[in-house]
Amino acid sequence: MAYPNLNRLADRRRIVLGSRSPRRVMLLGETGIRFDQVIPAVEEVREAGEPPFDYALRLAVDKGRWIMSRLTDDQVAITCDTIVVLGDRVLEKPNDENDALAILTALSGHRHVVCTAVALATGEEILRADYETTDVYFNTVTASQIREYIASGEPMDKAGAYGIQGMGAFLVDRIEGNLDTVIGLPRTLLERLAGEINGKLGSL
Asked: Does the active-site annotation cover 62?
């Protein structure tokens, strides 16, 4: 897929990816643009009564605000947050192996929603922010299969305790939506947001 808006933005401004995720680094790298990486230090805590998708969007924006003061005038930051929603529950990254077991047991045989929010920021402001969702349908899996997967270590740094692009692929029956959203960086959304801000940014 071509990303003309993102490439135009990268030609005009230096891109900074505000994320520690190697999966986001991979997805952004596949667009062909050059970028730097900064890891924001933002506490990820859902506020009481906060709707799940609003929570993801707020965290992406909060990460953008954290990076803003560290940007130079010729930089634009991309920040993201991904959450897994089962019913009215937001399933965070597991605290330990027992938590991962509980999360994956709850997901087994059910549909859940993955939401990834993206924000674009300069040193002065948050330019644009939005989110995208994908429905994920899990296979019914056994406790022994889940424990074996947890023993691999892969679930421990991922929202919902699984990686669809890794060993956790066996958990998933099918998805309805964008795979990039599940992995953690919806590039079609990023391309749209880049197009929206290109007209707003002045030439360097």
From this structure: no
